[in-house]
User: Which sequence fits this backbone?
């Protein structure tokens, strides 16, 4: 979830996406289950010489074009890269915080050429400290002082039955009605922080 744009491009380039084949096609599966659940349309940018741009309002039309070879895997991957980075950018921004960066560096340590973890001698943070839970957004509204933020009440299954207030930067990415009632992944043990005057007690990851 914290891959750089360069890493996203590299992984998509290697991703299996055989022309005309739907089975075991992870790129198509991502578009179907993630992109179309978050966005109203999916746009594939192409040169005029290659037929021009394509705009899909529902997945089945895209799959049909792919099966009939009217949509090339390379063009599909470039479009998925764009949408994936749109989803990851707000998360990357939040994780620029030095404390979170240190935590994620510990959770995802670098590997050497043999695939073994490169140790730095700093072992005071354990990856198990990441309290990641699945919750349900039971209420969501625009932040009164920030057009780019939502204020959500998330049910994380707390023993008391109380919901958690979480402020997220999804307002310019996902319509409110598409998020209300949805299951989301939440980093639940961040230190509470005020975002434009409202205390947020977690972070919605996806």
Assistant:
């Amino acid at each position: 979830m914290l891959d750089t744009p360069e890493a996203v491009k590299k992984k998509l380039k290697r991703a299996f996406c055989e022309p005309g084949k739907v089975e075991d096609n992870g790129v198509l599966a991502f578009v179907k289950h993630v992109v179309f659940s978050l966005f109203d349309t999916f746009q594939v940018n192409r040169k005029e010489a290659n037929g021009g741009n394509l705009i899909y309002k529902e997945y089945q039309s895209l799959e049909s074009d792919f099966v009939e070879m009217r949509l090339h895997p390379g063009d599909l991957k470039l479009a998925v890269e764009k949408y994936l980075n749109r989803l990851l950018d707000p998360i990357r921004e939040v994780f620029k915080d030095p404390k979170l960066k240190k935590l994620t560096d510990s959770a995802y340590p670098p590997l050497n050429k043999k695939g073994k973890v490169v140790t730095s001698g700093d072992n005071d943070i354990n990856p198990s400290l990441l309290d990641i839970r699945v919750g349900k957004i039971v209420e969501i509204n625009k932040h009164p002082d920030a057009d780019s933020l939502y204020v959500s009440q998330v049910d994380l299954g707390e023993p008391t039955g109380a919901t958690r207030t979480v402020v997220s930067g999804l307002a310019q990415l996902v319509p409110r009605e598409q998020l209300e009632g949805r299951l989301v992944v939440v980093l639940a043990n961040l230190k509470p922080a005020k975002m434009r005057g409202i205390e947020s007690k977690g972070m919605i990851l996806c």
